[in-house]
Fold these 4 entries.
Entry 1:
Amino acid sequence: HHEVKLGELMSEAGLPVVVVNSVPGPGGSVGEALGMHPDVDIVSFTGSTEVGRLCLEYSARSNLKKVVLELGGKSPFVLLEDFTDFAFAAQFAASAAFWNMGENCTGNSRIILPPRHKDAFIEALKNELRNWKMGDPLDPENVLGSMVSEGQFRTVMDYINKGKAGGARAIIGGGPASDLGSGLFIPPTVFGDMKPSHTIAREEIFGLYLNTIYMGNNSSGVGAAARSYFCASTEALSLAQVASLPALPVSPRNNPYKYPETMRECRNLVLRRMADMDFVSPDAARAAQAIPVDRT
């Protein structure tokens, strides 16, 4: 319903109907119709790899329209050997993996770290996750809500059961939140003793799910990071890198939308990239960067 509401808001704002249209419906009918239509010049799709292949197929069978795809993600978070601020690393890792209920294609759902750091890091992660209260997603006191659908709930539980059957050990979570009633709640789950070749270490799960992979050294950690069909983004922490980072909020206790300075930096970076790629003119990008940013 978000797309329909967005269309309503655009109409209320005075945007002509011919500019933006919201067409709700199942992908098997509406998606195929758009993908095959000769008057559609470009299709942008975010979702599964299987449907991404269909988008390319529709393009090939119709007018060779341009196709932009953002597909599966199984991105790594690499904790390098020299980094020992485990509280910071745990905040960073939890935020990278669990925001938006883990239903995020760029989520860093694989933690790769040296064996000698695992106990301290896991303890810090447990402490961090105590701040991630789960419950009614409409209650602002809660950081985590339910799965988006019953189907996704079953999918995540199937992967958790696959992990246990494959010998992985659930060191945090590992099942539904029975104390929250009959809702589709699965608390953050973290598996240890994970091999990079394991199914749950390679396939996208799209839930509150992390697996830890222990590396022998920095080189083997980078190698483990690359062993996945999907890698939409990569995060790594080392002393040298963190020393150069600005003090940006990374915890759910520090909502980044409370920080106009952070928002302005992110917005201006995107605008500069858009100008570099000729999506907007340099003059338009500069004008947009001059607009003040506040919490609204």
Entry 2:
Amino acid sequence: SDGNEPPLNDDDLEVWQTDAKDPNEYDRNDDGNAHHFADLHKGMLRFSVNFGKWIIWAEGSNDGAAPRWFLDEKGRVNNLFRRTVKRQIDYAKQQKDIYDADLIAAGGIKGNMTQAGKQAGERAKLWFAWSRQSGMNSTTTNSLKQAQSLNGIPTKQEDWDTDPLRLGVLGGIIDCARKPEKLKPGQKPYRFIENKKDYMITMNTNVEFVEYDEQASHPHEEVKRGYEMFNNYLDTFIPEHLRYFLQKLMGYSLLGGNPERLIAYFYGPTSTGKSTLLNLARASAGEYGTTVDP
């Protein structure tokens, strides 16, 4: 998903809830930084033990990007760690302001300062020094490594993308969990729903889901053009009596498993649309699709 990571900016971060305590309540060491970082991003970051990578929840942003989990291929977690450093700097500045105000009240004479003012000055020195240390690459790396094993952070590969009936698409999830025998008249066996953190879905087609009967009049020209091209393909290569079978086969290929133990071979003369259909299916599947050597 390297080329399809959703945007992650300050707008996204502002909507994150945080359980972070006052910076002074954390130890000034790598372990303290790790706990501070984990509290600051609680529920929004997980670490994959199998892949050795962080997984980040993007809540969605003002430009219309939908919420989803994504595998951090670009080291964005290092940028997120800077939020921890910024809180340390802001705390140091706050303590410095308290010290300065107390010094002014004491007429500029340190001996006349209150104990609280003096302690604020000491905390300012300590946290300015530690924030500089925290911002160094080595400390960042060590702190993030410590955070990987904290409660609620590590995950295994089998924790993710396990529901065979939920397909991640651009903007949400296609949920195919409805049982045919329980469908009401006119009700479809699938529904388009919003992605949620507890679905634990990282994979995505990176293709917008548009109902077939809405494509011909869709406001985006590329969708209408795709609809026209696909129907031209069907008219050219796929007889009417085979289309329902093909639809079932393509839908079955999107399930997260192979319960019927099927394998499909496309066999026939050249220039009969086999590769075109396979390329279309592969592109539509996005991260769910792949190619294998025969």
Entry 3:
Amino acid sequence: RNGPRNHAQRSAENTFPCLTRDRKIKYSAFRLDEFRLKCFISNQFMKQYSYFHINFKHKTMKKIILSASVLFLMSCAELQQVVNQLPQGTSGIGNEQIAQGLREALNMGIEKQVDKLALENGFFRNELVKILLPEELQKVDKTLRDVGLSSLADEGLRIINRAAEDAVGEATPIFVDAVKGITFNDARQILLGNDNAATQYLQQTTKTQLYNKFNPIIKKSFQKVAADQIWSNIINKYNSLPLTNDVNPDLTDYTTNEALEGVYTMIAIEEKEIRTKVSSRTTDLLKKVFALQD
């Protein structure tokens, strides 16, 4: 009753009450065809929309998958590039092998740098390690220069450094033995530390031992180069001056500590060279170990 045809007939009767029955039927058929056409168009539109929507989603998904694939491949390529830049052949290095590499670097510091200190003027002409007068004797130096004894003051400073140079030359085997006996509890941490981490560790663990062995050699060198006589003369001259307080410094102790500081300073210089310059790694062990900290 309420279908499209009856609806079209009632619409025609209500819209055109003056039409004849035949015309009303024709008008109803026209309205029915119009209704069917609208339904057909609507149906076709929905089909096209569904096709377009599905096709659009399919293309969008393809683009997403393609983009993700490109990003993945780029990431893989970058990762491979990073891997290629990593040091080769370092995967199986343990604490002991790293410790051996650190010892070799310290020994190289002794051979290449500390040996220079044993040469004449090795301390005196090297501003990094030159031994200056202790604070107690600086006023002695100034006073001697003020009264015209500059040459005596110069000789006093030079002879201290000369004693250190002589002592280092004789004590080199002590430094080598100290390096051989050093134990690294965490060699990898020291390797990955700062530019003088191994030298600092050497200083912390051997300074007292080295002082006890090095001090007698310094004392012997003082006698050898006549430093004890020269400084005895200097101090006597100073103490004899009016308006001065007598001084009696322990130059052997002071020079021992200053000379040890110079030794550690020169070892640290070579350690930094090995850490920062691949060309300074002259053995396979050094190349393999220090590649880990690059």
Entry 4:
Amino acid sequence: NYTVDMEAVACFAEKPIIEGFNETLTGGETIKFPEVIDNLVHLNLAFFDEEGHCFVRNSVQKYIVDTVLSGMKEELEKAHGRLYKYYKALSKPEFPDKLSEMQPFLTAVMHGCLSGNYKDVYQNIYLKKITRKNQYFIIHRLKAYGNFISLVSNFYDKPWQLVTLQLKETYRTSVLGASGYALKAVGRLREAAQTMQAGLDILIRIQDWKDAAISAESISELYLKLGEVSTAVDMAHMGLDFADLSGDTFHKWSKRCTFANALFLSGKVDEAQDYFYKAELVLKDENPDYLLYG
């Protein structure tokens, strides 16, 4: 059964009218919102629990989606826009510390994206309220990985490969990276690999070699966990190449270590030893007094 937020639905009983969508609820015709619910209850297609929550049968929802709303793209976007404003205003406190308090924001993201307001949703709800920019509050503090995965799926045109082009490239890269991290954390490794690869493709296109090296390394480690060692070796070598393009000493060193480790796990022990030695040379070139400990 599908739970109905009666207060949210009631906002459609208010004007202005969304032509072809809510005339019956606003009184533009003979049927009004309370009568709709009463009729559904009478037909055993909806019911209220002891706490007053309204539930509608899935068959009703499916009928509405497949028939009534079919071909109403513009009207639906306006309707979702109204719900987006409703849930955004409903959210209290402004920076919730509990998942239950954050729920209206999560619902607002869904309706905001379905209304096409991707930029406003990303900047003012997702980035500011939910993830708290680089803190990723919902993941690191609330440990709500499942909720986060459901949340970011709203930004995708094709999960987990294509983020909506209505977000600028840096935002798309951030969504892909965060999605990959969360999917990996819950064990959905192949989906994580897909989204991380999509993120890497963007980094290569914009020639962000440092982040591309980090991304390729992460994908390599992911494929090792999947047991696909040859692919892990290829991705690790790619990360090494990107690190060299970046000129960053730390990543030139660490990506050689990652590649050497992948070679070792693939059974190429001599090549692995050679790259571990090359990794040490990177540090010695930067600091001639460097000593390898261990």
